[in-house]
Amino acid sequence: EVQLVESGGGLVRPGGSQRLSCEASGLSFDDYAIGWFRQAPGQKREEISCLSRDGRTYIKDFVKDRFLISGDGAKNTVTVHLQMTRLKPEDTAVYFCAADTVDCTTWDPDYWGRGIQVTVSS
To answer: pLDDT digit string (tens) for 22-57?
Structure first.
């Protein structure tokens, strides 16, 4: 069974940094693409980044110069990180980890974490 658990959220000041982690069990990097989405209040959920099965990374243009995705771990338990820098109030959202057997360029994730709140405010 695939399980995704996010950690690392909280309150951060504008201009600060935050690192989110997603512990993914029941899967491996060889078979799944894993990445991050977010949903701000009153907004649709949007994709941020994806780590593909072959190790390539995809970051959406609107955060490309500030966010970085990376992964580590062994078979059946892996961790994917989202390093966020120069945070802005508009980055405030619930951040979700997601996974899918379809790769990043065409994925529509089947597996989701519960989400974690990130609030950027002074």
So the answer is: 999 988 888 899 999 999 999 999 999 999 988 899
Distance, CA of 85 to CA of 13 (rounded, Å) = 11
Residue whose entry in the numeric block shows the structure tokens 């970085």: 68
Cβ contact 17:63 at 8 Å:
no
pLDDT of residue 54: 87
- The backbone torsions φ and ψ at residue 71, rounded to the nearest 5 degrees and listed phi first, read -145, 155
With a CB cutoff of 8 Å and minimum separation 6, the contacts of 48 are 35, 36, 37, 38, 59, 60, 63, 67, 82, 95
Assess whether pLDDT exceeds 90 at residue 75. no
The percentage of residues in the chain with a pLDDT greater than 90, rounded to a whole number, is: 84
Rounded Cα distance between 15 and 91, Å, is: 11
Q: SS3 string of 38-81?
A: EECCCCCCEEEEEECCCCCEEECHHHCCCEEEEEEEECCEEEEE
